[in-house]
Structure formats: C-alpha cells, structure tokens
Write a structure and sequence with these properties.
single chain, 680 residues, alpha/beta, ph1033 like fold, Rossmann fold, 4 domains, 6-stranded mixed β-sheet, 5-stranded parallel β-sheet, 29 helices, 15 strands, 46% helix, globular
Amino acid sequence: MFNKSILEKVLAQYKQDFVLTQWKNENYKWKAVKQFQDNWDVNASDFSEMLSRSLEKTYNLLASANNFPKAMMSEFAKAAPEEVRTMFIALFDESRDVFERMDEFKHQSSVLLEKYGNGAAQHYQYENAISTYLWLRYPDKYYIYKFSEVKTVASELESDYQFRKGAYAENIRNFLNLYDEISAALKEDAELVNLLHSHLTDDCYPDPELKTLTIDVGFYISRVFLQKNIDAPTRPSLNYAVPSVEEANLPLHDDEKCNYWWLNANPKIWSFSDIAVGETQAYTLYNENGNKRRIFQNFLDAKVGDVVIGYESNPVRQIVAIGRVSAEQDGEKLFFEKVETLSSPIDYAVLKECPELENMEYFRNPQGSLFKLTRSEYEFILDIIREENPIVTASSSDAYTKNDFLNEVYMTEERYETLVNVLRNKKNIILQGAPGVGKTFAARRLAWSMMDEKDDSRIEFVQFHQNYSYEDFMMGYKPVEDGFELKYGIFYRFCQKAANQPDKEFFFIIDEINRGNMSKIFGELLMLIEKDYRGTKMTLAYNGLPFSVPKNLYIIGMMNTADRSLAMIDYALRRRFSFFEIEPGFDSQGFISYQNGLNSETLDELISKVKELNRKIAADKSLGRGFCIGHSYFCGRDVCTDEWLHSVVDYDILPMLSEYWFDDENEFQRWKNILQGVFQ
C-alpha cells in the first residue's frame, strides 16, 4: 500500500507537465514498445537482425554512459544466435517464476561473456535491462525496474514495500506489486487516461493497461517531481548512495552537512592501491617547497564524514577507490580513510564523455589535488561506479553447517575436519579424485560450510582451458575501437572485492585447474598466493601499481586424476597448493542414509558390485585409486528406478571402463557382464 493523497499531488503536477514537456521528452517509451511488438519474432531465420530491429527505438532504456546492455546483447546474438534465442525463449516463458527467469538470464549472459565477450568486463544484463526486455514483450504486465528509482518512488509515496540492496528476489516482487497498485490508481484518473489517449499516435503502443504510463510516472517522481516540490518528503539518500560506509561502521552524516570531494593521487608518488580498506592516509596541505596546494580553500572546507572519490592520474587515469574524511586538517595535513576498493575501476574517458559532468571542477581545471563535487555530480559518478561495482549488503543467506556438508557431500566427519584444517593452513588447495566423486559439488559446499552460510556473493567460479591466459585471469590490454584498453581480469576484481570485507572469507574456485598453462595464467601471482606472502604488495607489470592477494581469500582447484591427456602440474605451482584426495563416498554415513532412503534392492546390489570394481581398479598398477568410480553417479534422486540405474551403467561407467582397459578386452567384458548382470 501507499499514500494515495501524495500520488494525487504528484499526478496533478504530472498532468500539467505532461502537456508542456513530459510527452515530448518521454513518448519514445511507447514508440519503443510498438517497434518491438511489430518486429519481434522468436522464430526468425536471422535472429540477430530481428533482435536489433526490435530494439531499435529503445535508446537510453538499454544504453547509458557506462551501461551497454543492448550493444552487448546484439554482439552476443551475432556470435551465438541460437544460444541467445534460447535465452529469450526461456525469459519469456510465463509459466515460470519471473525472478527465476531473470536470474537464469543473468547466469546465461555470464556464460556468453566468457565465450564471446572478447575481454569485456561486464555483460550488462542485469535487472534493469532484463525487466526492459520483459516489458517490451509483455507491455500489459511488466515494468522497467531500476533499484534507485523504485526505492525513491516507494519512499516518496510512503509505501509499505521495502527495498534493500542485494535482496534481488524480494525487491523484484515488491516492485511488481507496488507498480501494479500505482497502475490501478492511474486507471481511476479519467483525466489522465484521456490525456494519454489524446497524445498517442499510430507509432505508439496503445497501453491499455497503463503499464508504460506507470513507468513514466515512476520516472517523473524520482527525477522531476522532487526537484519541483520543496515540500516533498526528503529521503535518506546518503544511506543509499554509499551503502559501503554503513557496512564499514563509519559514521553517517546529515546530507545537508556532507560535502563530496574528488581526490587526485599521482601513482608515481603514492597510490590508493597501497592503502588497505579501513586504513587512514594523510595528505599534506603544503607541497615539498612549502607552498600551499592548489585550491587551498578546499582543504580547509573538508570536514569529518565528507565522501571522497579516489582518482589516480597518469598513467592509470581511473577512479579506483571511495573514502571518507576521517579527521579535519590540523594546519599541516588532511586525513581520510579508505572505505572501498573498486574491483572494476572507472576510466577517465568514460566520465569525460558525460555531459552531466562537463562543469565538474576537476574537468574545468585539473591542476590541483582536492576538488569539489556537487551532490548531483557525486551521485551521477556513484551510479556509474555501482554499475560496475555493485554493493553486496549484509546477506540473508541460509545457514550452512558442517552437518549440512556431511549430509550432501558424503564424506566422513574426520576427512571433512582434515580438509578444512588443510585449507585454512595453506590457503590454497586442489581437490583431486576420480570421475564422479563430486569435486565441483564439494568445492562450493566446502566454501559454504566455512562461511556458515550459502553466500554465493563471496564465491567466484572459473574453469581453466588451454587458451585461458593471464590477461583473462588478472589483466591485459584488449582491443577496442580506437586502440587498446587495459581490462581487469576476474581474479584481480575478486581480490579487490575480498579486500573490501577483510572480516569475511572469500573463495575462488577453479575447475579443471590442470587444463590451463598455470605458470602462464598465474604469472607473478605464484609468489603472492603463498600463505606467507598474503597481503604483501608487488608491483604489477601491466599497470605499474602495487597489488596483493588478501589474507581472507582461499583458492580451491579441482583436478581429475583419471585424465591421461593432461601434463603434470608445474612444480612451482604444486609447492603452493596442498592436494586433497576426494574419495568415493559409498561408505560414508551420508551416502548410506541416502541409499537406504531409496529402498532399492537393485541399487544395493549395484553399489556392492561397484565397490568391488573399485577395489580391482585400485589394485591395478596401470590405474590406481585415482581411477575409481565415484558415488555421484548414483546421487540426486528421490526415486530410484532400474531404467535409471541401467543408463548409468551403460552410458557413464562402461565407457570409462572401456578406456581403462582398452588393451584388455577380456577384463572389460568381465566387468561389463558383472554390472549388467545386476539387472538380470
């Protein structure tokens, strides 16, 4: 519910502005829907061309200064039209939960980014863009979602719905409910309905359910109404603008008393990267010659609690951090505390192209160190920062304990305790084992159990392959339209993310770790990932800046011991990892309970034969324990059927045995007969 009297006040102003300016500036929304509806054909032979044509009139709805969902999706469609077609079919499947569809679309976009992103740091397919696709397809049901906008609308209308950073599913559902209520209220305003219909042209969607009108009213509340109405309720925007401050237990100040600053660091002299989150840095008011620094008054005006945008000049030319003034100047120095390291720094070129920042003090005259930002400039810059560096607030994740791990992974408690102790001691571990022992399955749950919760925001997952490189992993120059641009890799960004929350544990999981050229991929990280060198800074070759691997980050690799085609792991890297054997868990209490729960005599007999088979494999000098059959082939079922078990034997186990005993046909046939004999 919301305060309808406030909405009435909004609509009174909206109807006046609608005639004067609003329709002229915003009618493209109705035209964008009409263009999509007229051109969308999921079965089009040229899907890429159809998609581009359908999105032709979306303009800033799917493109902004530092957000390019339309362009990126168009490139994906050119590279993999059938994969993208399947994504949209799934997204538009109204038989499924909308948030599940949106979440799946994001996940698939990440897959496409890995395959076809050409080094791009983001796929830009997040809630705002995905909700836009849904609205274009079903304009009588959906709306465009933007967290900051809907949060403002809810606040200004005194709505009961709450919106919290990171609570994606809850936010989406609250948003749809709130806007449905607003839409219903708009239908009761006959004057507004008639006003809209009188302006609609043939190239506009007729909007019978007023969903697009609702979107426009929401936009109007957040961007126009508040500026025109000084009596409008004020919102605690600083709590929204810098959520990381609250997480860092720093004091929040009244918006009216808070200033915003751009602090320019010369990385040849000092760097934000040398400062840890929570660390205080002093900045002198006078240069080495004893002269006042440029714009000296800014140093005098800065006060405790002021927000600082941390920028590094040549050769970096990027925003790399956010901080706070921690102590006012004492006549000689100004003190600030680093609040956040940006995992994806923001390039100077991106900011310079934004007309909203053209009057920024630093852009008018970059000579100096500390520059004022207006509140609007700061909030605009922060929006750009958050597009690339979303804040993860305190999670409401489900708890996950050691017992949960043991019930799912089928490992003895003693082995689990050993595994955790080894990882905490070494910081880096490789889970190795036979096919089907559940290494990948175990890795994520190991992380959960050590975190005591299912918080996937603190887990990053990658898979190595022969073409994976240092440039993908850490950083490297990638081609752009007019040359090359330094792009940060997934491990670099994850390290920065972990450094922002030193009291939390983070886990970087690498599947198929031995399939990559690890010395090439890790580069100078070979030293930095060692436990004794965690937190130690080293100058990176690409950007010349210091970098360290945080102490609160753990690396978990997985390796299939039965893959004969792979070379042994480089010895230099081997020394930096502990190796833990994941064994078939048939004898664990968890698996026994699972097996008993299925109540299948066929399964019981088959497991008995597989255990016998594993003893044979382990004793075979040409094979060994690393080639044993894992328990995961028989997991994940609520009901056990002979048909399923037969397929596991025929299509999973026997093909492996054929490889194992390719030179011993008699042995292979013997075990084939034994396993298939279970079903006789």
